[in-house]
C-alpha cells in the first residue's frame, strides 16, 4: 500500500463567500491518497478499503499514472464469482480505464464527469497525468456549503 499524508483539503481553509463555480479540483481534492499497483492482491485492497472507510482506490503504473480503479463493487463481484481475494490481483479485477480529472478542472466540469460516469470518487491528475489526489461527491457538496458561508467579521 502506498499513500501520501495530508488529510486536509484546501476547501477546509476557505473562509467567507466564494463563487462555487470558480473552485477547482485542486481545492476540493484530498491529497492523502491510498493507491496500489496492478500486482497487489485484492485482499490487501479490501483491507485498505474497509479500514480506511472509503469505497475505491486508484490503481497506478510505475509513474503514478492511474490505469484503473478497484471499488467495493469490483471486490464483491470477484467474491460472488467464487474468487479468493488473496489469489487475485488488482489488475485482474480493476475497472479500466481510469477516469480522471485534471487538477485545474472546474466544479462544473467535475460534476459533469461524475454524473455522466456515475462516479462516487474520481482521481485527480497533474499536467503530466500523475495522481495527485482523489475527489468525492461529498467534497463537492462540502465545498458548495462552505462557499455559501458569509464572511466572518474580524472580532469573532
TrEMBL record:
> Domain CBS, which positions?
29-85, 94-152
Asked if Transport is a keyword of the record, the answer is no
- Alphabetized CDD domains for the sequence: CBS_pair_SF
| Signal sequence region | none
Q: Supply the Gene3D superfamilies for this chain.
A: CBS-domain (3.10.580.10)
Q: Which InterPro entries match?
A: CBS_dom, CBS_dom_sf, Diverse_CBS-Domain
What Pfam families does the annotation carry?
A: CBS (PF00571)
Q: Which PROSITE patterns match?
A: CBS (PS51371)
What is the superkingdom listed in this entry's lineage?
Bacteria
Do you know which SUPFAM superfamilies this protein is assigned to? CBS-domain pair (SSF54631)
**Keywords, sorted A to Z:** CBS domain
- The molecule here is called CBS domain-containing protein
Q: Which organism is it from?
A: Candidatus Manganitrophus noduliformans
Amino acid at each position: 500500500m502506498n499513500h501520501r499524508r495530508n488529510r486536509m483539503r484546501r476547501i477546509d481553509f476557505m473562509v467567507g463567500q466564494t463563487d462555487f463555480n470558480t473552485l477547482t479540483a485542486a481545492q476540493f481534492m484530498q491529497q492523502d491518497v491510498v493507491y496500489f499497483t496492478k500486482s497487489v492482491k485484492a485482499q490487501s485492497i479490501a483491507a485498505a478499503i474497509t479500514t480506511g472507510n472509503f469505497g475505491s482506490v486508484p490503481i497506478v503504473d510505475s509513474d503514478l499514472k492511474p490505469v484503473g480503479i478497484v471499488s467495493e463493487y469490483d471486490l464483491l463481484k470477484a467474491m460472488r464469482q467464487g474468487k479468493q481475494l488473496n489469489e487475485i490481483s488488482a489488475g485482474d479485477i480493476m475497472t479500466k480505464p481510469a477516469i480522471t480529472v485534471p487538477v485545474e478542472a472546474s466544479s462544473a466540469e467535475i460534476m459533469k464527469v461524475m454524473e455522466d460516469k456515475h462516479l462516487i470518487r474520481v482521481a485527480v491528475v497533474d499536467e503530466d497525468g500523475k495522481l495527485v489526489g482523489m475527489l468525492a461527491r461529498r467534497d463537492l457538496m462540502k465545498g458548495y456549503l462552505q462557499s455559501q458561508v458569509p464572511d466572518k467579521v474580524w472580532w469573532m
